[in-house]
Specification:
By secondary structure, the chain is α+β, with helices and mostly antiparallel strands. The chain has four helices and six strands; from the N terminus they run ββααααββββ. The radius of gyration is 19 Å and the shape is elongated.
């Protein structure tokens, strides 16, 4: 006899709350090769029509070896949802509240990126906490091409109630 399935008990990873995390924990996203498809989809979604992002001949005339990824195209690789972190804070995350970034070197078409988030700060509040994450992207040569910071508002572990 088949066991009854309960969708509310189907989870990817055990639930964690703000209090369960430690500074220094790292959450990596899968590597991605920035193919022409990524460039096309980003251009369509962003409406950015600068030729540096879609015209190879323009890029060559201006000293680039290939199409140059838009900074936001690189930044979105660090979305917390692309890592295991989001599955761990599934019911605890309230909001993505802040983001900053610096673009240190170009990402070209067919480069591979390696995104990661590292907890650098945990500021507890009464029922929530602010989790600060360093966001980094390296290329296939090990070069840091983007760094920045994300802040998430996360619920603290619920207090146990006695009956």
């Amino acid at each position: 006899m088949a066991e009854e399935f309960d969708p509310s008990k189907h989870y990817v990873m055990p639930q964690r709350y703000f209090d369960d995390f430690e500074i220094g924990e790292i959450f990596r996203a899968p590597s991605r090769t920035m193919t022409d498809a990524y460039f096309q989809v980003f251009q369509a979604a962003s409406a950015d029509n600068h030729p540096i992002h879609y015209d190879r001949e323009y890029c060559k005339r201006n000293g680039h070896r290939d199409l140059v990824a838009h900074g936001f195209q690189v930044l979105i690789q660090t979305c917390p949802g692309s890592t295991t972190l989001v599955h761990q804070i599934d019911k605890a995350i309230i909001a993505f509240t802040e983001q900053s970034s610096r673009f240190l070197a170009p990402i070209y078409a067919n480069d591979t990126v390696y995104p990661a988030l590292t907890i650098t700060g945990l500021k507890a509040q009464r029922t929530t906490g602010v989790m600060t994450l360093q966001a980094t992207v390296h290329n296939q040569n090990g070069q840091l091409v983007m760094d920045g910071e994300h802040k998430l508002l996360v619920r603290r572990r619920p207090l146990e109630t006695s009956s």
